[in-house]
Specification:
There is one protein chain. This protein is of the alpha+beta class. It is 39% helix and 18% strand. A hairpin with a 7-residue loop joins strand 4 and strand 5. It is globular and about 40 Å long. The N terminus is likely disordered.
């Protein structure tokens, strides 16, 4: 069996799957390969807020201070989720080759503006906010991001692509803001 067919079968069989922070994905190097995003469901913002609230519940359960919501981080997170949905991939690298850090810096989130640390979680395929937060908490790298006592702010992004077998795309961006 060809390697690409085997990989495709594994991708279909392993639903939902998530990558640890720092790993890559099979993103496109060419933005012309991006699909047009279908109209997003009305519940997108609600799902993002639910992920935020569930993440803070986990932090409080571990005796940590809850995150503060950050509008710019949320916009950058949603934009990355949309990019992944349009490109049918999951990665910390955008379809244009930008890293999580570059996307945040492009939005003005940098050392000059008080950002002294950052991290990102991405996931694909989990159908509900509860499912994605549970998946992240069951992953050592993702849980470490959520429970990092130095992080102060969180932004959450969600996108849905109705034609995909794994149609949900999730992003969390964390920063330490002084």
């Amino acid at each position: 069996m060809k390697k690409s067919i085997l990989i495709a079968l594994l991708m279909i069989a392993v639903v939902p799957f998530i990558f640890l922070v720092g790993c890559g994905g099979n993103n496109s190097d060419n933005n012309s390969d991006l699909r047009e995003l279908p109209e997003q469901p009305a519940y997108v913002a609600s799902f993002e807020r639910q992920v935020f609230d569930l993440t803070n519940t986990e932090r409080v359960n571990y005796g940590l201070t809850p995150f503060l919501w950050h509008d710019v981080l949320s916009r950058v997170s949603r934009d990355h989720s949309i990019d992944m949905a349009r490109g049918n991939f999951m990665s910390h690298t955008g379809s244009d080759g930008t890293s999580a850090r570059q996307r945040m810096e492009n939005a003005g989130l940098n050392v000059a503006n008080g950002v002294t640390g950052w991290s990102e979680n991405v996931a694909r395929g989990q159908r509900t906010p509860e499912a994605v937060v549970t998946a992240w908490m069951n992953s050592t790298g993702h849980r470490a991001n959520i429970l990092n006592e130095n992080r102060t702010h969180l932004g959450v992004g969600f996108a849905y692509f109705s034609g995909d077998s794994m149609p949900t795309y999730w992003t969390q961006k964390f920063i330490t803001l002084n």
